[in-house]
Each structure stands twice: as structure tokens, then as C-alpha cells.
Amino acid sequence: MKNIKGILCDLDGVLYNDSILIDGVIDSINNLKNKGYKFLFVTNTSGVTSDELFDRLTNMGIPVQDNEILSPPLAAFNYVKNKGYKSAEVLGGNSIKKLFYDHIEENTTSPEVIVIGDIGKNWDYQLMNDLFNKILNGSHIVGLHKGKFWKASDGLRIDIGAFITGLEYATTKQSVCIGKPEKAFYEAAINKIGLPPENLLMIGDDIVGDIQGAKSANLTAVQVKTGKYRQELTENSPVPPDYLIQDFNELIQLLDH
């Protein structure tokens, strides 16, 4: 793998599980950076801004620069702004709402666009039905990503992709989703890191968001057996990883081959 010069790296499930670091990853990142590999941390984390995510990673001890992170909120904001939407309802944390509402009118009655991010356990029937009716009345849907599930410290949890897909099914309207596995997100990552696809690999735990998404952008795809990895999902995937390794720390020896 001598052609690889840059690494697109997922966060949750690869470097840590629910904010608990996986042993050895800090040393492994430092070793790879010392060998000259460029890094871009790409994540579907949608509850906080990139600046907040940078602070979180730094506090965990992960060696990261503020320009080495790509996450969906800012990309979604740019999309909504470029589309010319004048009003929005944003489902997400306070910092995500501020990102949008500082520039676009907040409207929870009849918004032009509904932006769906992470709201944790606040999903319920009333909210889904409320969104359903707004979409039927003309609101557009923008999802920060369409992930199926993620791994917390107490097990797997359903992700926002399930709710977005449910709204699409019920309304027969299609959403625009910004994060992984969307090809546009990977193209943005390629542009940001400044290397061609043949010189990049993506490492992640999600067979769809990380592996299938990376392959759609012609990247080498490496899956780890940590986080949300499930053997049956990988074995049954129409797009398998190029390499399957135990954890992030094995990436160094893989790259040396």
C-alpha cells in the first residue's frame, strides 16, 4: 500500500466507543503522522459543530488540528443557504440551531426546510407526526446523515436515518442527506485533504456509511472489527471492504505491506 498518502478516519467506533478511547489509538495516530500520512477525521456526528468536536477530541488527547475535521452540520448549512431557503426548523443541539438561526429565520410552524440532526431520546410519535404533516404541506427535508444505528456504551442505538426514511416513506417525499455514505460528502473530504482518491484510504466501522460510501468515491476501504462492526452485515454486503482488520492499531502494519 505504498501509494497511500492520506487517511480518512471515522471517529466513534474506530478511535473510541461512546467517548471511551480504544487502547493504543493515540500512539498509533502519532506514529502514522510521524511517517508523513495526512489525516482527515470524517464523521457523521451531528449533535455538535466542528469547533465543539475539535475541543472534545483535544480533551480526549487525540492529536488533531482544527482543519482536520469534516462533519455534516456546516456542509448542511451551506447547502441550505445556497438553496436560498428563508426559514427552517432545525432538530439538533443548541450550537447546531445557532449555526442555522443566526442566518435563517426559525420557523417551527411552516418552515421551508426541516433540518434533521441528532436529538437523542427526544424522538416520539408526536414529533414524527408533526414533521409528517409539515412535509406534506411543503417543507423540504435535509438530513445531516442517514446512519442506521450507532454503538453506545450500553449497546446499539437506532440512528436518525431510520426516522428520515420513515418520513420519506410516509410522505413519498425524498430527503437530501449530507453526511456519509453520500458520495458528495466523500468528494468534499477528498477536496479538503488535497489528495487524489488513489492516494487515500478510508478506515471505519460502518459497512454502509464508511465502506460502501468510500468505495463509491473510489477510495481504498478498511473496516475495523470495533464499534458497530457486525460480521453478518459485512459478509452479506454487496460492497465488501478491501481490508478487514482487528482495530485501528493494525493499520500501521497494513500500510507497511
Automatic annotation (TrEMBL):
Pfam families: Hydrolase_6 (PF13344), Hydrolase_like (PF13242)
CC annotations in GO: cytoplasm
Highest taxon, organism lineage: Bacteria
Keyword Protein transport appears in the UniProt entry: no
InterPro entries on file: HAD-like_sf, HAD-SF_hydro_IA, HAD-SF_hydro_IIA, HAD_sf, LHPP/HDHD2
GO MF: metal ion binding; phosphatase activity
Alphabetical keyword list: Magnesium, Metal-binding
Residue ranges of the TM segments: none
Needed co-factor(s): Mg(2+)
Protein family (similarity comment): Belongs to the HAD-like hydrolase superfamily.
Cited NCBIfam families: HAD-SF-IA-v1, HAD-SF-IIA, HAD-SF-IIA-hyp3
Annotated PANTHER family: 4-NITROPHENYLPHOSPHATASE-RELATED, HALOACID DEHALOGENASE-LIKE HYDROLASE DOMAIN-CONTAINING PROTEIN 2
Descriptive protein name: Haloacid dehalogenase-like hydrolase domain-containing protein 2
Organism expressing this protein natively: Flammeovirga pacifica
Source lineage: Bacteria, Pseudomonadati, Bacteroidota, Cytophagia, Cytophagales
